[in-house]
Structures
1.
Amino acid sequence: QVQLVESGGGLVETGDSLRLSCAASGRTFSSRVMAWFRQAPGKEREFVAAISWTDGRTYYTDSVKGRFTISRDSPKNTVYLQMNTLKPEDTAVYYCAARYGAGRLSTAGYEYNYWGQGTQVTVSS
């Protein structure tokens, strides 16, 4: 019904920047929340940032506040994650997720209905 495809990951050095993209296709709706999660090897999946599609409200986990920015391009059904001042601890597979039928900027992965395949971000020290 809805497909999410992430792109933009890569290998960078500490302090560099990357912009991740997540393109949604299929039967998409404007009333939704989209978010970014990440998971490092051997660690639990963690919430990074979320955005409301209707009003643009955003929410970030403390570890990325001031460094990462989530944004949306509604006509293109695309959400972005601008990552600045990257650190080795940001190394992870980054996943795009979408939540339909609710407007809360949830940090819980199980509350999201659709997921992309992930894109690898590696930050060298």
Note: The mean pLDDT is 94.
2.
Amino acid sequence: QVQLVESGGGLVQPGGSLRLSCAASGSIDSRYAMIWYRQAPGKQRELVASITGGGIINYADSVKGRFTISRDNTKMTVYLQMNSLKPEDTAVYYCNARYIRPSGYWGQGTQVTVSS
């Protein structure tokens, strides 16, 4: 079993910053790819950023230059540093861990709201 718990969401003004954390536990190790998704009301879920077990990183075009994904394998935690936030970044952010199973494992999500 794998458990994921996201934290760090909240309300922030445009141009501000937040750091999201996803703490993993259970039968998981550094071979897993870790992925951040987000979903806004009425919109499809979209991939935001990913980092493989080998450290290869990819970002959605909409967040390149503003967001940074990283992982600490000693703590089994993945982070998403979000800078220069925009109202269109408002969404529930989900953490996903994937290795062999195509669907992987999901956390409960954390709300990010960007508003004046």
Note: The two ends are 41 Å apart (CA to CA).
3.
Amino acid sequence: QAQLVESGGGLVQAGGSLRLSCAASGRTFDSDVMGWFRQAPGKEREFVAAINWSPARTNYADSVKGRFTISRDIAKNTVYLQMNNLKPEDTAVYYCAARGGSAPTSNLRLYDYWGQGTQVTVSS
């Protein structure tokens, strides 16, 4: 079965950086798009970024454009989210997700597989 495992979350001061990783294994042969979503306490889950495995088309939420970069390593079956200039409002549980198809959509309902999440906390 498909499995996604996030890592790299932690505590960081505002203005700092973190890199999240999502390792994919199992039945991911039909998952051509990988995405990152986040959810803060009391808030709805929101789209952060998405990328096609090949070619590497990307899509970013307006709130993270210019600060976050999504990338992938096909050989390692791993997707990354480099987060720079972090702000307190970035504090959330970050989830990795996967879907079939070719469009790096922001619609979370179109994603088929989800990781367990990793906590990112940004202090002011």
Note: The mean pLDDT is 93.
4.
Amino acid sequence: QIQLAESGGGSVQAGGSLRLSCKATGQTLSTNSMAWFRQTPGKAREAIAAIYIGGGSLWYADWVKGRFIISAEKFTNTIYLQMNQLRPEDTGVYYCATDRADPVTVVTGDPRSIDYWGQGTQVIVSP
């Protein structure tokens, strides 16, 4: 069993930055993947970025275009999402997930098959 605790969401004006955190507790493995997804108004849940808990094998959605950076702190089983140059269309609920599969498989597959999800954290970007 793995639990995910997210933090760092909030409200920011366009052009600002936020740093999301997600700490995994329980029976984690260094071979587990962790990933960030988001649910924005009018869109299906979409993958943002993914990484191994132990680091490496980074994946980013094409639309990120350098604005977001994922990182992993393996000794605390924590991942981060640094979000810069935020836009109003980034508004939504951001979710952390972890899975036994590799990062690419996790983000390109069906999100409903992912092993564990966090509770989500809300991000609001004002124009």
Note: The longest strand covers residues 18-26.
